Every structure is written in C-alpha cells, then in structure tokens.
Endoribonuclease YbeY
Amino acid sequence: MEPGSRYPFGGEVVVADRRWNFYVRDVGRVVARALRAAGCEADVVLTDDRTVRRLNYRDRGKNKPTNVLTYERPPEILLALGVVRREAEREGKTVMAHLVHLLVHGALHLQGYDHHHVGEAREMESEEAKILARLKVANPWKNR
C-alpha cells in the first residue's frame, strides 16, 4: 500500500515530508506494524520540524519543534523528521528504530499513559519496552 492510504491498523499514514522515505524503507508498513503492536488506531502524519513547531506553539505554547505530537480527537500522531533524525543520531540508533519507539510512545499517550510524574513515567517506559521487545526494537530505557 502507498503511504496516504488506509492500513489494516485502522488509520491513515500521510508522508507529508517525502524525506521520510529516504530514512525508513517501506515507512507505511513500519507505521502499521508499530501501531498494531501498541493496539492503537490513529492517523499518522510524518512531517517536518517547521510544521510540528507551528502546531506545538499553537497548541502547547512552545515555540520549538518536538519529536512527536499526539491529538486525541481525531486520534492522530505527528512526527517531525529533523528532530527524530537528530535524536536517533545522538542516541546511536537508526531513524526507523526511533520512529517505532516514538509511534509506540504516541500510541500510549492516546491510551491514557503519561510521564509527568516519576511513577507515571516508569509505568509508561515499562509498557513501551514490552511493546518494543515484541517488535524486536531495543529498549531505549535500558542504559539510562
């Protein structure tokens, strides 16, 4: 299936910034697999830093791009390529592995998980690690 069409997980994948295709082979299937594993139905928009910065400012008052934004209605996960790429490089992992982690992270936010307090963060990180293990993606919290 081409990105921008419906996938079996119940959402749509929109590759708004085509550079995602350079960093993640078969990006639509990667997204579908991650969201299925997380038990989440949401649309996913793979976009650029500028778009995410604008939305982050509009909706959260933060005038900077962030790696992932989630919206509950309609359920939607947006990811900023530049931030994701820089974080992956800094953390020594592939863009695909970091994308999968952030998709799971966003999916868990849509399911009510949060990380504002230490206990919440531990619970969310534990759930992320379980899902990522099923996807054969290394635990991002293991060496902290």
In short: Strands lie at 13-15, 43-47, 68-71, 76-80. Residues 118-134 form the longest helix (17 residues). Residues 13-134 form a domain with the Collagenase (Catalytic Domain) fold (CATH 3.40.390.30). The mean pLDDT is 92.
